[in-house]
Amino acid sequence: LSIQKTADKQRLVLVANLPESVTLSPTATTTVADLFNDISFDASLWQTASTGSYPRFPMWGQMKQGYDFSATSAPTEINVNMFRTMAKVDVGVDMGDASSTLAAAFKIKEVSVYAKPASYLTPHGNYMTGTGIDQDVFTEPRPVSGAIASHTYAVASPYKEILRTIYIPESEASTSSVPQTYLIIKGEWTSGEWNGKTGYYRVDFADGSSFIPIVRNHAYRINITKVNTAGYASETEAESAAPDITGKDLVVEGMNDNINDIVYNETDWLGVNVSSVLFDWDKMLVGNAMASTADKNKFALQLYTTYGSWTATLEGSPSWLKITPASGTQTPDVLSGFEIEVLSENLTGTERQATITLRSGMLSMPITVRQSGGANSHLIRFATGASAEIRIPVSFALKALGDNPASPTTDLSKATARVLWYETKESTPVTFTAELSLDKKYITVTAASNGTQFNGNAVIALMDGSGIGWVGSDNPANVLWSWHVWSMKGSGTTDPDVDINFHNPNKDRLMRTVLGKYGTAQKGMFYQWGRKDPFPQYTTGVAPRSIVIDAAGSNNTETYVRQNPTVFYTGSHWLTSAVPARWTAGSKAEYNDPCPTGWRVPAGTDNYEWTLPVAISHFQNGILDGSTDGAWASSGHYLWITSGTNYPYWTATGNTVTAAMSTNTTTGANIRCVKDIKLVK
After folding, report:
1. Chain segment 493-544, per-residue pLDDT in tens
2. What's the pLDDT band for 565 if we cut at 50, 70, 90?
3. In terms of Cα–Cα distance, which of 612, 605, 604, 675 is closest to 644?
C-alpha cells in the first residue's frame, strides 16, 4: 500500500474473477461505482453441463472501516465479504409501517427463489467451496437439465421482512406460460380469518400490467400490503401454478421502486433511477424512458439510501446547470431525490458534460449530465394544429466546419436557409419551409399539414450566398451544411423513434423503425455508407425530384460531397478513393452521424437483435412485409430485401446481412439507430 501521510486511513475495495477482457485501472478519483460498472460476465459461457468451461462470477468487496496500515496496531488479517453483480430483492409486509395490523397477523417464514436454467440461480452452500452463503468462490455451473431449481432463505423473527439478503442474477421476463424467475413465500397466520394456517404464495416479477426482467444492479422491493387468500396448501402447488401478474393472492406494491443503478457495501446501499441524463441543445430532456417533470428542461432524479441522509455536489459549478436541493434526509420506504435543471441553450456546437457526485455515508455515485450541441437529424412533432416547427442551431455547423461559434470567421452576411427537397407519401403532402434568423444563430423549419396527415422528410441546407451553386441546381449559393428533418404525429409509445422494449434486459435499445420511415408504403430514408445526408426511396424507375445521380469523380473529396447533399454517387465508393470509417463504432460520431440526438449509428458488434418477432408490425421493425418496390434494380445501389425477416441495415462497421448486401459504400440502405443514452443493464 502507498501511504499518503502518517495516520492516513485506507479502505480497500477488492475485485475478483474478472474476465480477461476487463482491465481495471483505478486512480485517486475512481469511485466504487466506476469499478462496479466494469464487473460483468459472459452469460453464454454458462450454457454447459460440465465444470470445465464456465467462468466464475466476478465479485467485489469493500472493507467495513478504514485502517492506518502504517500503525503498529494495524491488523495483519482482514475479512472482506465478496458480493456478486446481481439484483437485490427485499421482501416484507407493510415495510416501513411498524404498527401494521397485517404484519402482526401474517408472518413470513421462508422465501424461496425459483430460477429456470435460462436464468442464474443464486449460489448457495451446495455450490460453494466450503460451507455457508458467505463463501466467496462459486464452483458449480447453473442447472442444465431444463428443470426449475430453487433455493430457500429462512426469515428471522419477528418474520416481517428479509432485507439485504436475497441477491439474484439476471433473467428474462416470464410469460403467461413460461416462467423464468419467481418467488414462493411461506406465510403463517397467527390471527385473523386464517388463524393457525400456513400458506404458500407465488410472486412473479411484474409491474402490475406486464412481466418484467431481472436486471443486475437493480433493486426489487416486494412489499406485501394485502393478502387475499389462505394461499396454496404446499410449495409444490404454488410452484405448479401458472405465472401471474394480477396479484390474486397477494397485493404487492413497489415491485420495482424505479431504483435501477445501485452500489452497496456490507451495511448500506445507495441507488438512483438513472445515472446518466441527456438534454438537447435547446434544453429539452431527451429519452422516452426517463420520467420528467412538466418543465421539459428539468429531470427529477429519484434515489433511495439506507444510510438516512445524502448530499449532491455539482462538480465545477457549471453555469448552465442547477440542482435542487443539494442534500436531503431519507424517509424509510419513500423515494427521495433532487431536480436537475438545464438553464441555457448550448450554442457551443459540441456536447458539454457535467458530473453530480451523490454521496451517502461511505457510498458515492457519479451522475452524468450531458447537453447535446446539435445533431444532423431533427424530428418535428405535430401536437395540435396544422403546423409545427423546430429550430436548428447554426453553431453546430460552424463547429463541424472547424470554426468557433462564439466568434465565427465564416462569412454569413449573405447566408440563407433552403429546403433542398422534401418527400411524403401522404395523399395531401406535408410541406416544409426554412428561414435563417436575423442574428444567423438559428434555422427555423416549419412543417405545414392539412390537419390529418403529418408525415414527411426533408433536407434543409445552410447556404452561404457565394454564387457557386451545387451539382444539378440553379441556386447561386454554396451549401455550408445540411440537415435531415423528419415530421410525424407522435404520441407516447407509437412514436417511431421510441426504442423497442426488448424482453432481454441485456439488449441495447434499437429505434422502433428505420430513420425517416412511416406507414407501410414509405420505406424510410436511404444512406450511402458514412454519409450523413439521406435519400428518398426510388420506386418509379427515375430518380426522385431534386436528386441527381452521378458517378464519383476525381474531385470527390469529403468537402465536395458535403457541399452536394442531393447527389447520389455511383461506383464502388462515393469518394475518389476508398471511404474511411466516418461513423464511430460504440459512440456517436458527432458531426458525421445521421441519427437524432440521443441516438447513434449502431456498431456491428453492439448487443442488439436485428431479427424481431414476426408478430411485430412493419412500423416497428422496418421490414417490407412482402412489398416489392424500393429497389434500384438498374444500378444495384438502393437495396431492399423482400423475403424472410432478415433485413440489411448499415452499421458503423458495415452491414448486418453480408451475404445479401453489397459492400460498396455507394450502396443505399436504411439505418436503424441505437440509443446513445446510457442504460443500466
Report:
1. 455 555 554 333 345 567 777 888 876 667 788 888 889 999 887 644 444 5
2. very high
3. 612
Pairing label, strands 668-671, 649-651: parallel
Place of cell 448486418: 656
Q: How far apart are CA 232 and CA 378, in angstroms?
A: 55
> CA 205 to CA 203: how far, in whole Å?
7
Q: How confident is the model at residue 6 (pLDDT cuts 50, 70, 90)?
A: low
Residue 555, classified by CB atoms within 10 Å of its CB into exposed (0-12), middle (13-18) or buried (19+), is exposed
Separation of alpha carbons 182 and 204, rounded Å: 5
CB 487, CB 455: distance < 8 Å: yes
Helix (H) or strand (E) holding 298: strand 298-305
Give the DSSP H or E segment for 187.
strand 181-189
Pick the more confident residue, 516 or 426.
Answer: 516
One DSSP character per residue, 334-393 reads: S-EEEEEEE-S---SSS-EEEEEEEEETTEEEEEEEEE----SEEEEE--SSSEEEEEEE
Q: Compute the C-alpha angle 644/646/652, nearest 5°.
A: 160
Residue-wise pLDDT tens digits, 187-240 = 999 998 899 999 999 999 887 777 887 776 677 889 999 999 999 999 999 988
The answer to whether the CB of 402 falls within 8 A of the CB of 509 is no
φ, ψ of residue 44 in degrees (nearest 5)? -65, -25
Distance separating alpha carbons of residues 67 and 52, to the nearest angstrom? 39
> Are residues 670 and 514 in contact, defined by beta-carbon separation less than 8 angstroms?
yes
DSSP 576-628: SSPPP--S-TTS--TTT--SPTTEEPPPTTSS--SS--TTS-HHHH---TT--
Name residue, grid cell 449509428. 601
C-alpha cell at 178: 413460461
Measured CA to CA in angstroms, residue 78 lies from 61, 133, 269, 361 at distances of 12, 19, 22, 21
Residue 582 pLDDT > 70: yes
Residues facing 251 on adjacent strands: 226
Contact 645, 636 (CB under 8 A): no
Residue of 596, 399, 578 lying closest to 481 (CA atoms): 399
Distance CA 231, CA 185 (A): 9
Higher pLDDT, 379 or 139: 379
Residues pairing with 181 in the sheet:
115
pLDDT, one tens digit per residue, over 633-652 is 223 333 333 333 445 577 78
Where is 397: in which H helix or E strand? helix 394-400
CA dihedral for 202, 203, 209, 210, sign (positive or negative):
negative
Distance of alpha carbon 101 from alpha carbon 114, whole angstroms? 29
d(CA 515, CA 504): 23
